[in-house]
Amino acid sequence: METLTNEILSQTIRIRPEESHKGTYGRVCLVGGNDHFGGAILMATEASVYSGAGLNTTLTDSSNFVSLHARMPEAMVADFTNHAELTDLVSSANTVVVGPGLGTTSQSLSVLQTVFDTVTPTQTLIIDGSAITLVSEKSLKLPQANLVFTPHQMEWQRLSGIKIADQTDAANETVRQQLGGTVVLKSHQTKIYTPTGSYLNTAGTPAQATGGMGDTLAGMIGGFTAQFENQTNAVLAAVYAHSAIADELAKTQYVVLPTQIIHELPRFMHDHQH
Length: 274
Ligand SMILES: NC(=O)C1=CN([C@@H]2O[C@H](COP(=O)(O)OP(=O)(O)OC[C@H]3O[C@@H](n4cnc5c(N)ncnc54)[C@H](OP(=O)(O)O)[C@@H]3O)[C@@H](O)[C@H]2O)[C@@H](O)CC1
Ligand SMILES: Nc1ncnc2c1ncn2[C@@H]1O[C@H](COP(=O)(O)OP(=O)(O)O)[C@@H](O)[C@H]1O
Ligand SMILES: [Mg+2]
Fold this sequence. Notes:
Elements: E1 2-3, H1 7-12, E2 27-31, H2 38-51, E3 55-60, H3 65-71, E4 76-79, H4 83-91, E5 95-98, H5 106-118, E6 124-128, H6 129-138, E7 146-150, H7 153-160, H8 169-179, E8 182-185, E9 191-194, E10 197-200, H9 213-227, H10 231-250, H11 258-271
Parallel strand pairs: 1-10, 2-3, 2-5, 3-4, 5-6, 6-7, 7-8
Antiparallel strand pairs: 8-9, 9-10
Helix pairs in contact: 2-9, 2-11, 4-5, 6-7, 9-10, 9-11, 10-11
This protein binds ligand NPW, adenosine-5'-diphosphate and magnesium ion.
C-alpha cells in the first residue's frame, strides 16, 4: 500500500488554461438532503463549488432550497422528487454525487433508484452516506459507471459484510473487485482501494471528527473528478487535500469545521497547482 504525499496535489491540480470557460471545469450534480439532513447536501454542494467545478446543480428536498440559495447562489437547485428534472440533470452531469443526507425512506430509495437507472458508463458516480446504506439494505443492483464509494467503517461493514474488526486490506480488496470501481474507506487513517492500487492517507486529525466532514469530502471528490482528467488521481487528491487543510487549521484550532475546510480550498488549490 502506497502512502499519499502532497505530490498527488501537484500531479492533479492543473493551472487553469487562459482559453477556458465554466464548461471546461465540469458539471456536478449532487443528490441528497431530505427534510432532516439538509446540512449534509449543503456542505457537499459548497465543497464542490469551492473545489472549482464549473457548474453545480443540487437535487434535494424543496425545504432546503432557501437555505441552499442563501449560502450558495452559485449552485442551481431542483426538487429530487421531480422525476423528469432528476433524470435530465443527472444525464447532463460529468460527475454525480448521491447520498449525503439522502435518508433511507421509500422516497430516498426511489430517488436513488432513478439515479442508478439514469447514469451511464462515461459518468463518475460517487456513492456516499445514506446511498451506501440503501444499496446494502435493499441489495440494489449497481449501475455501469465509474463508481466511487465513500463509506465510513460502519457503512463499509453494511456494504461489504466485513465486520469492522475484520476489515483487512485483503478482505477489502476482494469486495472492491466484486463491486467494481474505487472504495474510499474512511477512518482516522483513510484507505483508498482503486483498480490500479491501494493508498493510505496518513494526513488528517481528530479535530476533523465532527458531523458533515464526510459530506464535505464527497462534494470535494465531486468537484475534483468533474474537472481533473485522471479520475483516480482526482479522488486521491481530494482525500489528501481534505485532510491536509484540516492539519493546517488544527495547528491553532481544537476542532476544525467542515465549512472551514471548504473555505480554505481556493487558497490551498492555488498553492498546489502545477
Ligand atoms: N448536518 C447534516 O445534515 C448531517 C447529516 N448526515 C447524514 O446522515 C446520514 C446518516 O449518516 P451517519 O454516518 O450519521 O449514520 P450511520 O450510517 O448510521 O453511521 C453511524 C454509525 O456508524 C458507527 N461507526 C462505526 N465506525 C464509524 C466511523 N469510522 N465513522 C462514523 N461512524 C462509525 C457509529 O458508531 P458510534 O458513533 O455509535 O460509535 C454509528 O453507530 C447520512 O446520509 C449522512 O450524510 C451526517 O453526515 C451528519 C451531518
Ligand atoms: N480521528 C480522525 N482523524 C482523521 N480523520 C477523521 C477522524 N475522524 C473522522 N475523520 C474524517 O472525517 C470524515 C468523516 O466522514 P463521515 O463519518 O462520513 O462524516 P459525515 O457523514 O458526518 O459527514 C472522514 O473523511 C474521516 O476520515
Ligand atoms: Mg458520511
